Amino acid sequence: PIGLIDGKLIDLSENIVPMEDRGHQFGDGVYEVTRVYNGYCFALKQHIDRLYRSLRELKIPAVYTTEELTGFHELLIKESGITDGAVYLQITRGVAPRAHGFPDSVVPRLTMSIRPMSSVPDKNKLEGAKALLIPDERWLRCDIKSLNLLGNVLGKQKAKEAGCFEGVQVRDEYVTEGTSSNFFVVKDDVVWTHPDCNLILKGVTRTLLIEKLAPAAGVLVVEKKFNTAFVKAADEAFLSGTTTEITPLVIIDGKPVGNGAVGPITRKLQEAYWALID
Length: 278
Ligand code: PDD
Prior knowledge:
Layout: E1 2-5, E2 8-11, H1 22-26, E3 29-37, E4 40-41, H2 44-57, H3 66-80, E5 85-92, E6 109-116, H4 123-127, E7 129-135, H5 150-161, E8 166-171, E9 174-178, E10 182-187, E11 190-193, H6 204-217, E12 220-223, H7 228-232, E13 236-241, E14 245-252, E15 255-256, H8 264-277
Parallel strand pairs: 7-8, 7-14, 11-12
Antiparallel strand pairs: 1-2, 1-6, 3-4, 3-5, 5-6, 8-9, 10-11, 10-13, 13-14, 14-15
Helix pairs in contact: 6-8
């Protein structure tokens, strides 16, 4: 398996990330995950734009151009020969003796890797998955795609231990998002999702769904908060994300969503997504 450090090709088995990288010691950095379909990165521009936003919010200098970052993605695809997979990219504040405050002059460090991932839909995508409602225990800047994922990691594990594919997080009665995906419900033919704010990640897939897939399919989406009672009364529910694509949810907290089958609106949006990546 191969990767890149500051644009240079490496083998992932090489131990070359320094001890005092601030990503390693503080989670002081940001990341992106981009899908590769048929040898091309999907929605790469949108991922790179969000990466720059995350960097700005954390005051990490952007030392690579969009063209360079695009080139690194293409290089990984070419060198690995992987046509269907995912590229992981992270930028940390850099390497410096451990102290909480920002070091005076430090160069951000870019690391990237590519792994194969099947683009053939799995059982969860085809037949629907189970989700568990869990408390949202994360910080108040979930809009930044930061390396600090402990809340997400613990939430996903809780869901996994309950036999579920995803944990759907609830903050102050309102449903925010999955641990690595955005969350939607359908009620009376209207799609609902949490508004874009500091409490959720503005997913690239979510934006695509709201701005392109739903309007083209004649489906109305509202960005409004809703509580767990609303979820329990929903006709359909689904997740969106780079790796999740659009995954229907048929069971939430052990109870069927709607009639317990994949809903027609969910399926329509899912098929529109697949048509786009094909
Ligand atoms: N996760 N919300 C959270 C908390 C996420 O971590 C993700 C993505 C999303 C969906 O965003 P997008 O559509 O841009 O992938 C929403 C990535 C895939 C991950 O951590 O692996």
